[in-house]
Amino acid sequence: MHAKLSLRYRLYLSHSSKHCLKVMNRPSDFRPWSVFPSWMNPIVSDYWFGQLNNCLAWERPQLSVYGSSYTVPRMTTFLAEKNISYRYSGYTHFGNGWPSWFRPLLELVNSSCAVSFNGCLLNLYRNGNDRMGWHSDDEIEIDDSKPIASLSFGVSRDFCFKHRSQNFREALSLNHGDLLIMHPDCQKEWLHSVPTRKGITGQRINLTFRCYIRKK
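Request: output the structure for the sequence above.
Response:
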């Protein structure tokens, strides 16, 4: 009987539904984020890591920062509903609709977070040399009243926070299948980054689910 179930339902059964009940428990205002280790079990995480590696058109766009151009130090791609766009550092991503194979994962994240995310920026860190500099997700296209969900697959990497005005930093080690929720105040008060780690040779894929403001 189990073999006859749809892929979507089998992935739901493989995923632990207990995570869907507590994901939006909010932390103290000092740390406006929540981390859920092993939110997705290893078998299902392995499946999605393979799908994302093989089914997406990864690229390294050219960005412009303060008049200088540079190539993104990682691979990236963007999935979103149609008529959704996302511009940062002089480069614009455009949504072309969700691929059918991606929808089961999107629905799991939406259900757990009680949010209908309409876009997802994906980053592939090929090894420890690939990185993300200090920034906040505060572009005008992003609905700042909604949380942001960050899902990690592959090797563990440090995800660092630093407060904008206080002398405080914190580093999280995000592992295969971990889910990080950044609550709305996080982008206003904190910066985050994925720093270089020279000793790491494996790949990491991160998916950042957001609510984008649809252009009229």
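The first strand starts at residue 33 and ends at 36.
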